[in-house]
Design a protein that fits this description.
- By secondary structure, the protein is mainly α.
- 76% of the residues lie in helices and 0% in strands.
- It contains six helices and no strands.
- Helix 2 (45-57) runs parallel beside helix 4 (84-94), helix 3 runs antiparallel to helix 4 and helix 5 runs antiparallel to helix 6.
- The longest helix has 35 residues, at 108-142.
- The relative contact order is 0.15.
Amino acid sequence: MGSKTRGEWIGVLKPIGYAVAVLLFAVFDSTVSHRIGFYGTTPSLCLALIAATAVFDGKKAGSVVGLSAGVVTHALGGVGVSILPIVWALLGWFSAAREHGTPSRDNADRDFLRRFSNFAVCLALCCGVGIVTTAVSLFLTAGRFNIFSAFVKLLLPEALGTFVYGLPIGLVRIAVRRAR
């Protein structure tokens, strides 16, 4: 019975870290994030978590975090049956960047810029999917509504808030990855 290696500890602690992060981000999204949004909208930091996980840890981790975040968010929000967990799981699967391997040591600045730009593009795509998902949800619940007014007053500010407040999550994830 030897002690665990560093890789074994990371393999054990990473899923626990994902679970804690999903729970904390979902609670934050459900309780506090409406106070920091643009024009009274609610940014979704869970989308930023899904994007960061997909970009830095791959398709499987991104889809599991997406599904988990969707389920926990809806459980906390008291929403009935929804397709959001499935949409977020697919988002985590398809948002994985071209590569998520170990950062190269020879040119750390270029590697940082590449990783951060991959994350920013992925986060922007997640925000776009968030716009479409919210618009469909509005249509299904409200029936008739003015799409232009909803886009200007709700959908665009919500996506911008998610993008702006989500960028530091990518920076923190890059810093954590570099520290290993």
